Amino acid sequence: MKIPFSKKERTPFEVLSFISAIAVFSIIFLIFFALLIESFPAMKAFGFKFLIGLKWDPVRDIYGALPQIFGTLTTSFLAILIAFPVGILTAFFLTEISPSYLSRPISIGVELLSAVPSIIYGMWGLFVFAPIISRRLIIPIKNKFPNSPLFEGPPMGIGILTASIILAIMILPLIVSICREILLLIPDKVRESAYAMGATKAEVSFKILFPYAKKGIIGSAFLAIGRALGETMAVTFIIGNQHNITTSLISPSSTIASTLANELSEAVTKLHTSSLIFLGLVLFFLSITVISLSRYLIYSVEKNSGSRK
Amino acid sequence: MNKRHSILRRIYDYTFKTFATFFAFLAIFILGAILYEVLKRGSGAINFSFFFHLPKPPGEAGGGIANAIVGSFIVTFIASMIGIPIGVMSGIYSAEFGRGTSFSRYLKFSTEILSSVPSIVIGLFVYAVIVVPMKSFSTIAGALALSIITIPLIHGVTEEMLLMVPNTLREAGLALGVSYPFVVRKICLKSAKIGVITGILTAIARISGETAPLLFTSLNSPFFNFSLLKPMPTANVTIFNYAMSPYDDWRQIAWGASFLITVAILLLTILSRILFKRVKNG
After folding, report:
1. Model ipTM over 0.95
2. Structure confidence at residue A72 as a pLDDT band (50, 70, 90)
3. Predicted confidence (pLDDT) per residue in B115-148, tens digit
4. Which of B157, B159, B258, B264 is nearest to B205 (CA)?
5. How far from A156 is each of A125, A136, B30, CA to CA, in Å?
6. A230 touches chain B (CB under 8 A)
7. Do A119 and B209 touch (CB under 8 A)?
8. Where are the domains of chain B?
9. In terms of DSSP H, where are the helices of chain A?
């Protein structure tokens, strides 16, 4: 509904609200331009080579971001690989299988999991989870496959694998809550007609509901990847912070966010600061791309289900 | 359909149900494991000096994080003072004055993107526009970074709550001859109040847990600070610094601070849930 009112009687209240709206709208562009301007020195010094350079060396003032970009993409990819199946099955449990007295407390629990701050995951991951992973998972695997390139190096428990698992735990609530909402949007008629044909719960879930909600579910996965890409504190605690590209899942690595967290407040040279901000700009682009994609997918589901009701 | 086929189908179904149930309970188990460790290790670190003393150099027994606790309150408070009015006002614009315009559609998209921008990038932005020109880490920089995180959240919830206010209420107000802005202020906002407060509480809970944007905006300090323009200690950054240190005393304090933050955030979250229930039930 559009409410007509004359243009003459603009109150200060209305003007203030319009100004706030413009301010809020422009924040995202301000972020982009500020990062762009501050990263000019690094762009001038390294150009495109910044993105494919293998060496990140503050001592000699040479910066290449490939190790961090690699670390960011690998950890996020592994995290979604773990969290996606777990998340979607949990959502199926909440909407299709569980009795209502169980689904409420479990969804509240999952919600609380998302309220736990990143730094607490970091503490827990570093002091509790990493030693367990090292003892129960990495050492047994290393004993079984001593020469596997995926498990090369000392089993310290910190590194890509542990960071990815923690990330997976952190993005799980996001996947569960969006998938759950999307599954609840599907009209009950769809389920009932399938059950009437004698389908089992598994068949209804995978052959009927999953294809029906596919776009939204994939959208939720992208949203979760977007969250994982920029996750900072937990990863900084656990990843080990070494700028190298490795095939080993248990060796320390670094991500864009962890590099920023570790180095920016101590950066001395102008070029170092600028390179770090350039790194931030890369992260900004990565997450904006992924998030826009996910918004598009989730929107189109909500629109469709709206017209079908 | 033969019998073997039907057995296979049933096995498939049971496997599905078992895994789904297992994963759902696994998520709860992980939550429990995290809370248990934080409560167990953290409660041991909490005592009188934890709350009321300044940090001591490593090696000396005792010491607390009084300055960081106060600092966290100050930074969160200033951030809310900046973020709440801006977020609420722009939310009012998209739901009321600008409803249906194409600008409000762009606004919606831009706030949704902003809400998913990594918090460390927002910290980086504030670093570039405040810390670099002022040549100093400062309280206000940290507060500004946190306020930018709250704005899209508060904007979104305000808009949503105002859209839930039925149009008949607006029409009733207008029919009495009062101006539209007055209707928005006195009728729409009033009936959306609890929902908006819920959103604000959620946003405050969210920023109380944020560390990344504070690392290079407000930094840290071993002393009390009440100046807007000097580095400000916060509990979150203290956890990061202490946990990464090799001293057991400091790690112990980091667990104590983790305990404090977790409890605060859980309380805020539960409070906002209770309020939200009241909204839903009318």
Report:
1. no
2. very high
3. 999 999 999 999 999 999 998 999 999 999 999 9
4. B264
5. 13, 12, 22
6. yes
7. yes
8. 3-43, 50-280
9. 12-38, 40-46, 49-52, 66-92, 100-115, 118-124, 130-133, 139-144, 160-185, 188-196, 201-203, 210-212, 214-230, 233-238, 256-263, 270-308
Rounded to whole angstroms, the Cα distance separating A122 from A111 reads 19
Nearest by CB: B121 against A3, A93, A283: A283
Residue A157 · residue A130 · CB < 8 Å: yes
DSSP B228: T
Name which residue leads in pLDDT, A309 or A221: A221
Q: Can you say how many angstroms the Cα of residue B197 is from the centroid of all Cα atoms in its chain?
A: 13
- Chain centroid offset of residue B180 CA: 33
Determine the residue of chain A that is closest to B101 in CA distance.
Answer: A2
Q: Which residue has the tokens 């990140």?
A: A56
Q: For each of the domains in chain A, give its residue range(s) and CATH number, in order of start.
A: 75-259+288-308 (1.10.3720.10)
Q: Is B236 on the interface with A (CB under 8 A)?
A: yes
- Are residues A30 and B129, on separate chains, in Cβ contact within 8 Å? yes
Q: Which pair of tokens denotes residue A205?
A: 């879930």
H helix intervals, chain B: 3-43, 48-52, 66-92, 102-116, 119-126, 132-134, 139-164, 167-175, 180-183, 189-191, 193-208, 235-243, 248-280
CA A242 to chain CA centroid, Å, is 21
Residues 6+ positions from A245 with CB-CB distance below 8 Å? A54, A66, A67, A70, A253
Residues A72 and A290: their CA atoms lie apart, in Å, by 13
B171: which 2 tokens?
Answer: 């029409």
Nearest to A239 by CA among A150, A82, A113, A121: A121
* DSSP letter string, A23-82: HHHHHHHHHHHHHHHHTHHHHHHHTTHHHH---EETTTTEE--HHHHHHHHHHHHHHHHH
- Tens of pLDDT, residue by residue over A113-138, are 999 999 999 999 999 999 999 888 88
Task: Compute the average pLDDT of residues A233-240.
Answer: 92
Q: What is the CATH number of domain B50-280?
A: 1.10.3720.10
pLDDT for A308: 41
Model pLDDT for residues A178-201, shown as the tens digit of each residue:
999 999 989 999 999 999 998 999
